[in-house]
């Protein structure tokens, strides 16, 4: 992980997130600033990846639903500026989300475009399996999505 740092996403990052959404997902309904602000206001776990100048180059979010000890994680979003793709930013963001879910022993679920081979490979490498298919999930493009899931990590104290 070189050339960027991970930190909590801030409300002031919402405009940049929305800008990246429009750039990265032009054929679908990109999230707007208010959606990112609402996610943060609801207390969901969101991280930003920042270049050395402090510019946001990626972001990811995880919702933990339910109550301890029965949390369930849902990856809400993950995106990396196209100029920064292939540099480990997405992997670092995703692993940080998984670490947060693992800390509360939550299974994790997500949706991914069926044509996003790179993301699917990353998810499979981290223990995710395809659970189902959501036809025409992404709008307005009508692209299909796989639902994928990974069981909860076993806490160390449960192993003893």
TrEMBL record:
Q: What is its EC number?
A: 2.3.1.266
**What GO MF annotations does this protein's record show?**
protein-N-terminal-alanine acetyltransferase activity
Top-level enzyme category: transferase
Cited SUPFAM superfamilies: Acyl-CoA N-acyltransferases (Nat) (SSF55729)
Can you name this protein?
Answer: Ribosomal protein S18-alanine N-acetyltransferase
PANTHER family per UniProt: ACETYLTRANSFERASE, ACETYLTRANSFERASE YPEA
The species this protein was found in: Kutzneria chonburiensis
Q: Which gene encodes it?
A: rimI
GO CC annotation, single: ribosome
Looking at the Swiss-Prot or TrEMBL record, what is one Pfam family this protein matches?
A: Acetyltransf_1
Q: Which UniProt keywords apply?
A: Acyltransferase, Cytoplasm, Ribonucleoprotein, Ribosomal protein, Transferase
Transmembrane annotation, as ranges:
none
Which ranges carry the N-acetyltransferase domain?
4-153
**Similarity section:** Belongs to the acetyltransferase family. RimI subfamily.
Q: Which domain of life is it from?
A: Bacteria
